[in-house]
Amino acid sequence: MVFNGTKEAERLIRDELIPSGITDERVLDALRKVKRELFIPQSLRDKAYGNYPLPIGENQTISQPYIVALMTQALDIKRDNTVLEIGTGSGYQAAILARLASTVYTIERIESLLMKARTNLYSQGYRNIFLIGGDGTAGLPEYAPFDRIIVTAAAPKVPETLLEQLKNGGKLVVPVGGRHVQDLKLVEKAKNGRIYKQSLCGCRFVPLIGKNGWKD
Ligand code: SAH
Fold first, then answer.
1. What is the pLDDT of residue 128?
2. What is the pLDDT of residues 67-77, one digit of tens each?
3. What are the pLDDT digits (tens) for 84-97?
4. CA–CA separation, 122 vs 119, rounded Å?
5. β-strand 129-133 against 103-108: which pairing, if any?
6. Residue 115 pLDDT more than 90?
7. What confidence score (pLDDT) does residue 172 get?
8. 63 is known as an active-site residue
9. 206 CA → ligand 1 middle, Å
10. Could you give the CA distance from residue 162 to residue 21 in angstroms, rounded to a whole number?
11. Most exposed among 14, 81, 91, 129, judged by the fewest C-beta atoms under 10 Å?
């Protein structure tokens, strides 16, 4: 059968994402526009719109579409927001964020993935995504504070440094728990600076490796 990305994306949205509670039209629209097949190895193209993670090399994965959608929806991104992402991976999540926010900074520790994502995003025309190499658990103090922060690798606890770099009124999503299974946490910093945490669901991410994460 001939691969039809638009049709497959529509099926995924209609049959899997909407019934699971992804109803924010802006998020659904971003998921329609960003072609997942352009962020995975060519050989896996037929699986691009399956609701599961896929390998992207270097033992890393592109997240399950439902989890990408859930994290994005939970962030409730406003047009003028500056977003920080830790764990660029393929660059797919960054592309989704870039369609909703004004500026996206994304940090990746594996050089080869960073280079690949940078070339790919640039050739697709994204100009509001800034890709940075290094340990994202330190955040990006020179551009802080951020309206929204998303961590797409599993942390042993909510990284304190990132909380410090979140604006009052800001939101952060991060998988927290063990190296293999975690709880997806939404952390909100109120206008007065108070921190509120809630669990969204169970999840499985690759480990966040760094100073304020897991040791290699
Ligand atoms: N958001 C990605 C998927 C992330 S996979 C996508 O849309 O494809 C998790 C990524 O986090 C991996 O590429 C891994 O190398 C990276 N990572 C792990 N620890 C990190 C750290 N401390 N700083 C930056 N990137 C990290």
1. 98
2. 999 999 999 99
3. 999 999 999 999 99
4. 5
5. parallel
6. yes
7. 98
8. yes
9. 8
10. 28
11. 14
With a threshold of 0.85, does the pTM exceed it? yes
Domain boundaries, the chain: 5-203
* Cβ-proximal residues to 67 (8 Å cutoff; 6+ apart), any chain: 184, 203
Q: Quote the tokens at residue 73.
A: 């929806």
- Closest Cα to atom 26 of ligand 1: 87
Using CB atoms within 10 Å of the CB of residue 14, give its burial: 0 to 12 exposed, 13 to 18 middle, 19+ buried.
exposed
CB-based pocket (< 6 A), ligand 1: 60-63, 86-87, 89-90, 92-93, 107-110, 113, 135-137, 152-153, 206, 208-210, 213
Query: Distance (Å, rounded) from C-alpha 209 to C-alpha 73?
Result: 25
Instruction: State which fold the 5-203 domain adopts.
Output: Rossmann fold (3.40.50)
pLDDT at 1 over 80: no
Atom of ligand 1 nearest to the CA of 209: 19
